[in-house]
Design a protein that fits this description.
Elements (H helix, E strand, L loop, with lengths): L1 E6 L7 H15 L3 E6 H4 L7 H8 L5 H12 L2 E7 L7 H10 L6 E4 L2 E4 L5 E7 L4 H6 L2 H17 L2 E8 L6 H18 L1
Parallel strand pairs: 1-2, 1-3, 3-6, 6-7
Antiparallel strand pairs: 4-5
The structure holds flavin mononucleotide (FMN).
Amino acid sequence: MKHLIVYAHPQTESFNHAILETTVKTLEKKGHQVNVRNLYDLDFQPVLRQSELESIRRGETLEDVKQEQEYITQADSIILIYPIWWTGLPAILKGYIDRVFAYGFAYSYEGNGIKQHLTEKKGIIINTHGTPKEIYDQMSMTEALKLTSSTGIFEFTGIEPMEHLLFGSIPDEELEMKKNLHTVENSLHRIF
Ligand SMILES: Cc1cc2nc3c(=O)[nH]c(=O)nc-3n(C[C@H](O)[C@H](O)[C@H](O)COP(=O)(O)O)c2cc1C
C-alpha cells in the first residue's frame, strides 16, 4: 500500500514531528511504502494567484503543483499531519490544498453536482491543539474542525475519511505524549 503524508510543522522539536516519525515507522514496519511531503522543507509556495487561476481555467497546471498532484495520484492513502493554528490549517497547508486540490484534478462540476476525482483513496488527519480537548468538545470546535477538513476537503473530493485524531492540551507532559503516540500507532494498525 502507498501512503502520502503531507506534513506541515516548521520545527523538528515538536509533538507534530514525533507524530510524523511514529506514523512513518509504524507504516514502514508493516511493509507499506511511505512518501512524506514536508511543506516547510519544500518551501512550498502556498499562494494561489490570479495567473494560476487563469492557467487552471485553461486546463494548465504549474510544475510544482503537478509534482504534488502526481504524489496524490499514486497514493492509496493520504495522511495530513498538522497543528491547529487559528482553528484551522497552518497557512502553508491551506495553500497546498488551495493549489494542489485544484478544480479539474480533485473535483469538477457535472450537471448540477460535484464530480469527485479522488475516490478509491483513504484519508487520515492527525491534529494537535493547545486548548484542552474537553473545552473544544464542549464548544463544538472539535466537530467544526472535523467538518471543515475531513468532510470539507476529504469527502468533498471523494477521499474516504478513516480517522481524524485531535490531541488537545499540547504541549503536555511526556507520559501524555507517549499515550497519544500509542493512539496514533493503534489507529494505523486498526485501519491498515
Ligand atoms: C500561530 C498559532 C496559532 C494557534 N492557534 C491555536 C488555536 O486556534 N487553537 C488551539 O487550541 N491552539 C492553537 N495554537 C497552539 C498549537 O495548536 C499548539 O501549540 C500545537 O498544536 C502544539 O503542537 P507542537 O508541539 O507540535 O507545536 C496555535 C499556535 C500557533 C503558533
